[in-house]
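Newbie here. two chains, one complex. Structure please?
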Amino acid sequence: KNEVEQSPQNLTAQEGEFITINCSYSVGISALHWLQQHPGGGIVSLFMLSSGKKKHGRLIATINIQEKHSSLHITASHPRDSAVYICAVPHYLLGGGADGLTFGKGTHLIIQP
Amino acid sequence: NAGVTQTPKFQVLKTGQSMTLQCAQDMNHEYMSWYRQDPGMGLRLIHYSVGAGITDQGEVPNGYNVSRSTTEDFPLRLLSAAPSQTSVYFCASRTTHRGWYGYTFGSGTRLTVV
């Protein structure tokens, strides 16, 4: 059973569209991470949040602790936003040890010009 | 440049061979961890370390050993490679200092076991 669920798995949109990627998790958490993985394979941390909302450029991440749900939004999407977006929670919250992350399977986003 | 450095970038092994994937960070991060990424499975935690001399198992530790003799280095050892260990391996580090708790990832090692 995957305790971190993402939707959709795949998303294709046109340039300029507003994008939403969803993440739900099964246990109470202290923090949730959003990461981006480009076709070349590199992984970059986008956000770490424990409540409310964070914004960086055209990216916005929100979290609802009570509903165990987080969303990543991209405004005015651009082809360079094409990547895999991954949410993750601290491993210890799912019965693991003191470090590391448990990941969702990712959302493969393609923005067409 | 500051960051997490993984070597090699690519490796082909024969079944039964051993090798060490190297991971080094120059940010004085306390925490380091290893992950493997497989199609359809996502990223999974192999081992982690909370400081020099302290390591522990993650979700999928079988077939892998780690050690952490210095803050900077966290090598991952495959003692007897198996085709099931064909994967892309990522090392990551993080700190709890200076208010940023996010992870910094290496660029990955693509391993094929034949």
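Moderator note: The radius of gyration of chain A is 14 Å. The first strand of chain A starts at residue 4 and ends at 7. Thread marked as resolved.
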